[in-house]
Specification:
It is built from 10 helices and 10 strands. The chain binds S-adenosylmethionine.
């Protein structure tokens, strides 16, 4: 099989998405780029097992940014990519998920373009799609939704995302997938209820999606708006709000979730309405 355009030239940068964790979700292009790269700049969310695919003499450079911890800033990363490409290396910028979804891939591409460095973007499966699939939540289901909204719970400077029109998306979004929302889960749930969402609507938290330690918790907006103990689940995590969440305890195929049976029993009425079980 011939890939369309897979030449990884020296002096160029590839911005590549590696998916949310399971190495099996790497695309052929991502796989090939890891094998070929002379230097790899990788993120905190990358499953480091994936790096073992690289050639023996590869340079591996960690440039992760996690939460409030002091870490390398974006301008420094941009400069590193440019400098290494100018040394005539094959430079790989490897990111969790997709590079253009809440991944600052756009900023890196712009800086490469402005500095006349050839680059290529290789999409990856974003956590908000793969994570739902591995939790048994179809991102669309004809009974429930014809749209999905992806939201980041953090603005560019770490603030709450005020540029998002919370009132209108609360009213119109059928399925809401929130990235980086765990730290702000009380606020997110309260805000959704305040703007008109049903307080008994289900919310799923999917942590470490597609990894061996994936965990799913399902509750209601009201419950998580009041008390949520962040110690019971790890980041990275997604928040998923909408009726599709009801399918998780039935379709969850990846990791056994002991709470599924209880949830099904406790929410029998909701399921009866839909003839799912
Ligand atoms: C900076 S964003 C990066 C998103 C990434 N570019 C993508 O497309 O998936 C980080 C957030 O993505 C979500 N995320 C990434 N990987 C995840 C995983 N394996 N499980 C759950 N959430 C994940 C979490 O909400 C996390 O806080």
């Amino acid at each position: 099989m011939q890939l369309f355009d897979s030449r990884f030239d020296r002096g160029s940068v590839w911005l590549v998405g590696a998916g949310p964790g399971d190495p099996g979700l790497l695309t052929l292009l991502a796989y090939k780029s890891i094998k070929k790269a002379d230097i790899i700049f990788y993120d905190a969310l990358l499953n480091e097992q994936i790096l073992s695919l690289a050639k023996p003499n590869v340079q591996l450079v960690y440039v992760g940014k996690r939460g409030n911890k002091k870490s390398i800033n974006q301008l420094e990363i941009n400069k590193l990519l440019i400098n290494e490409a100018k040394k005539n290396k094959r430079v790989l910028r490897l990111k969790g998920g997709d590079p253009f979804i809440f991944g600052r891939g756009g900023e890196e591409a712009l800086s490469l373009k402005l500095n006349k460095i050839p680059y290529k973007v290789v999409p990856g499966t974003t956590a908000g799609i793969a994570g739902l699939a591995y939790a048994g939540i179809p991102a669309t289901h004809r009974d429930f939704n014809t749209s999905i909204t992806f939201i980041s719970a953090y603005g560019a400077g770490g603030e709450k995302p005020e540029t998002v029109d919370w009132t209108s998306f609360t009213k119109t979004s059928q399925l809401i997938v929130i990235y980086m929302g765990l730290e702000r889960i009380n606020w997110v749930c309260s805000e959704l209820i305040k703007r008109g969402r049903d307080r008994y609507e289900n919310i799923a938290i999917i942590s470490n999606a597609t990894r061996k330690d994936q965990k799913i918790l399902i509750s209601t907006l009201e419950n998580y708006s009041k008390n949520f103990d962040k110690n019971i689940i790890d980041s990275p995590a997604l928040l998923v709000i909408g009726k599709n969440v009801l399918l998780s305890p039935i379709l969850n195929w990846y990791v056994t979730n002991k709470e599924d049976i209880n949830f099904l029993k406790q929410n029998k009425k909701k399921y009866e309405q839909h003839n799912f079980i």
